[in-house]
Amino acid sequence: MTTRVPTTRRYLMCPPRFFAVDYAINPWMDPTQPVSAERAMTQWRELRDTYRRLGHTVEEIEPQPGLPDMVFAANSGTVIDGRVLGARFRAPQRAAEAEHFRRWFTEHGYRDVVMPTCVNEAEGDFAWTGRMLLAGTGFRTDPAAHAEAQEVLGVPVLSLRLTDPRYYHLDTALFVLSEATDTTPAHIAYYPEAFSAGSRRVLARLFPDAVLATAADAECFGLNGVSDGRNVVLPLEATDLAERLVVRGYEPVLVDISELRKAGGGPKCCTLEIRK
């Protein structure tokens, strides 16, 4: 069994103080079903505190009334080597979030902040492997945003096409378990059926040792996980995936995100990683 080594991470999160499902912009959202902002806040706090117990730093941005999806901070920026590429949302209901996050970065000392010209939903569709940026398209982020990200962030970008509307962001179908180092390749987990045939072939060629998730894993947002290289934060229901990860030397940490999932989000959706 491979020995997995955790690395300390820095995250930006937004409390779901104004959480609601007042509209439907993905297949998981149903405004006719009741949601509890109080329960969402309890689950979010447990997720935040889990990161802190694992030794990570969590910073918080102030939520804004009228922006119930602002809790899904991952969609609002991509940060690599201290460079920040902001977001440009496809849904008008979320458009105002981008400016609040841009302001947070500039107020916290980030000078290299670029706002995109193309629709770009940030870490929702971008996954950093330590060597390249995996970039999703098909439902939200424009294909042209991939070239823009390469130019702004100065890293190679690989485009992947999503084909199942339930997995409308890359982070609902794939996440990085451990980043590449000088001696080891990146390790990922993904749900093959969420991708086009060509993208599946690319992933199989680049990541032959990937953990392949089942439909049950994907449907409970198991691929919306967050890993520090050893500890992997997953939704409570992702038991099949958790078992596979244990065999590969990881330590699954299961959390309840059932209320947040009603808006189509999970652990990663709530978590923007700041890579300095």
What can you tell me about this protein's structure?
The chain has 276 residues and is α/β, with parallel strands linked by helices. It has a single domain, classed as L-arginine/glycine Amidinotransferase, Chain A (5-stranded Propeller). The protein has 7 helices and 15 strands. The strands form 5 sheets. A 3-stranded mixed β-sheet has the order 2-1-15, covered by helices on one side. The longest helix is centred in the N-terminal third of the chain and has 17 residues, at 37-53. The mean pLDDT is 98. Keywords: Hydrolase, Transferase.
Provide a brief overview of the structure.
By secondary structure, the protein is α/β, with parallel strands linked by helices.
Which characteristics define this entry?
276 residues; alpha/beta; L-arginine/glycine Amidinotransferase, Chain A; three-stranded mixed sheet; 7 helices
At the fold tier of CATH, the topology name is L-arginine/glycine Amidinotransferase, Chain A
Low-confidence stretches: none
CATH architecture: 5-stranded Propeller
**What is the β-strand count?**
15
Tell me the β content: 15-25%
Query: Largest sheet, if any?
Result: 3 strands, mixed
Write out the CATH superfamily name: L-arginine/glycine Amidinotransferase, Chain A
Measure the end-to-end span: 31 Å
Structural class: alpha/beta
Mean pLDDT comes to: 98
User: Cα-atom Rg, whole angstroms?
Assistant: 17 Å
Coarse shape = globular
Which strand order spans the largest sheet, edge to edge or round the barrel?
2-1-15
The CATH class label is Alpha Beta
How many helices does DSSP assign? 7
How many separate domains? 1
What share of the residues lie within helices?
10-25%
In N-to-C order, the SSE pattern is EHEEEHEEEHEEEHEHEEHEHE
GO molecular function: amino acid binding; dimethylargininase activity; transferase activity
Family: Belongs to the DDAH family.
Organism: Amycolatopsis methanolica 239
Active site: 169, 269
